[in-house]
Amino acid sequence: MGIGTDLHQLKAGRRLVLGHVPIEFDRSPVGHSDGDVLLHAVTDAVLGAAGLPDIGELFPDTDPAYEGIDSSRLLERALAMVAERGYVPVNVDAIIHAEQPKLGPHKKAIREEVARLLGLTAEAVSIKAKTNEGVDAVGRGEAIACTVVVGLRRLDRT
Length: 158
Ligand code: MG
Known about the structure:
By secondary structure, this protein is α+β, with helices and mostly antiparallel strands. It has helices at about 35-50, 55-60, 70-85, 105-120, 135-140, and strands at about 1-10, 15-20, 20-25, 25-30, 85-95, 125-130, 145-155. The protein starts with a strand and ends with a strand. It contains 5 helices and 7 strands. The strands form 2 sheets. Strands 4-1-7-5-6 form a 5-stranded mixed beta sheet. The protein binds magnesium ion. Magnesium ion (MG) binds next to strand 1 and helix 1. The site of magnesium ion (MG) has 5 residues, from strand 1 and helix 1.
């Protein structure tokens, strides 16, 4: 098992991308990459389950190579490193913490896309959305955050 969390500040600007799915919203995450808070947490969970360094160490935001990068490419690289160690994902349980936008209409698309990126069926992926009841930075709509757990299994070596 691996756990990953992430939080990005929200500012007026670019579109919001969650789990590689573009979502219409008047604010977007501040970040060096595309600011996909869900994929960053998934990537950290995948890396952590295999005992690998974290996303910030492997793909530093001081490196211009990662400016504006599609976060699914970081996840792909993490999955390749994990596969080299003999592991593949089994399941994902994710919580998106956001006061806005309402994520209900987007959960199915996000679930299917995260499953596709990890080579899983949608049934092996859970995407939950929670507000923070108007409290703290997430609750005030100043930030969006994610908490993710990923399970890995050893590849059959026969
Ligand atoms: Mg991040």
